[in-house]
User: What shape does this take?
Amino acid sequence: MNFFGKTANAVCFWGGAALGAIFRADYLAKARRGARVSEKALKKILRVSRDTEFGKRFAFSAIKSVGDYQRAVPLTTYDDYQDYISRMVNGGEQNLITGRRISYYATTSGSVGQTKLIPQAFSCYGSIFKVICLMVRDAAAAMQRRGACGVPARGLLTTEIHIGRVDDGGENRHTSGGGVSSYAINGVKVFLPLFTPFPKEAFEGGIENLRYVKARCALMDPNVRWLCGPYMSMLTDIISYILENHEMLIRDIESGRIDPSIRMSAEVRGRLERKLRPDPMRAAELRAIFDGGSEKGVVSKIWKKLSLVQAVGAGDFMPFTKKMLHWCDTDVSLSYASYTASEAWMGYSFHFSDPRYLLLLDGNFYEFLPVDENGETDTAHPLLMQQLEVGKYYEIVLTTPAGLYRYRLRDVLKVTGFEGETPYFEFAYRANRTTDLCGSHITDAFVNAAVEAVEKELGLRIDDYSLYADTEHLPPRVVMFMEPERPVDAEERRRMREVFEAALVRVARGYRISRQANNLGVSEVYPVEKGSYMRYRQLRIAKGAAENQMKSIRVIKPGEELAYFLAAVTEVGKQRGDEE
Assistant: This one.
């Protein structure tokens, strides 16, 4: 980076950090009077949209209080908006569900059901800007912890751009694509080479294997100070790619060439090779690091100035966070970043190494449905934020400026504390991603607890895992696919199965009752080969899935997905299956 680039980077980065500090103070101040702020947001949403087709249908103009709103408008799901959104996208109709201008349609990940188009209002992007500034502020704070202040701060960014067009063949053209993070990055992609080690080609498309380009460029820069991505799995995947392909990457850094196995057009290859000049000194430094053999602390060895790892890393992503912590020294700070969905940005983790999110009061209105210990949701008695109890579970319900009203996101949260009237929470599980073998009602939270018991009992990190409801077995049973950090022998596999079964019986009441009645058989555990989950994610991306929305595969579907993981089972796993 030349002098101009370094100066521009430092000015923009530390300026963004200053704005982030201001926004942080504002969010915390709003949180202390959360009930009033939230009710004010609701009244503004209803006022702006009272003359829409949806607003007239439910008489928004007659609503004077939260109670009026709850009585007038029923709880909704995406199906309640599908016809409206189809008319908006295909017919160009306006004022159907919101009086605000729609700028973009975000696509959901499709992890449960079909992919959906979620409208995004222009006014919502102020919230995105604020959250980006909060993230920059955290990176700056982490650097200051290590004695660096006012210096340039480039980093490894894994966010991809998946932007397309929805076109009905006429005049109606609407921007569409992956999640809102894709759209936000697309808007500033011209500036990204200033803040990352990547050339502009990495953000323009046309390269089949962007992991190679990003890994290669990041490895070449010893001054990388932060790693950032939408999900921790995206960061661990690129580090795993580096570990598996370090010999090729180092060889290419040394020679300044791009390995022939990396597919791209000759024109793009030529442009990149002119920019990626030979660096034998960096290659020698990296070769010495990898010749050490141990993965412990390897990320901090590669980038000695690294200060922060920032990504959604709690809940489903905790296995990836554990892996990243293994690769980093204790000098590196960890931020769980934001809690977001295609529908809204809803929470932010304001403290390092803290998986709790503070509910963001920035234009949305929230309600909460109590969830009991069996995972049953009480839809008849919605609560407001000031009515929640610490330690209890709730399904979050959204009302947004973009036209979603009392919308069941189906995320279940655990309240862990309060900032004034506003809750801190942890993501617990997806309410509509529950396995109901013989009424056992097994949630992600129960599975996560059982996997953690396996890790603790065997002293073995499980890098990823999924559940499959085996209804072909008599009686039906839970089958767990687990990717351990290292190969396991037959005895360890037996212990994994025993510990998982005992823990699931202990934590999941419905499962315990079904097992006692012999309605379910003993669960089974299949260890899969190291890297199986990363390869499956890349396979899905190659088939067109948006990398920004590549979430954990916690429940395996029958068919191709099941066939893939059965083929990935290790020899130890197959031996047990043969015995049965």
About this structure: Residues 456 and 499 are 10 Å apart (CA to CA). The chain is about 40% helix and 20% strand. The mean pLDDT is 89.
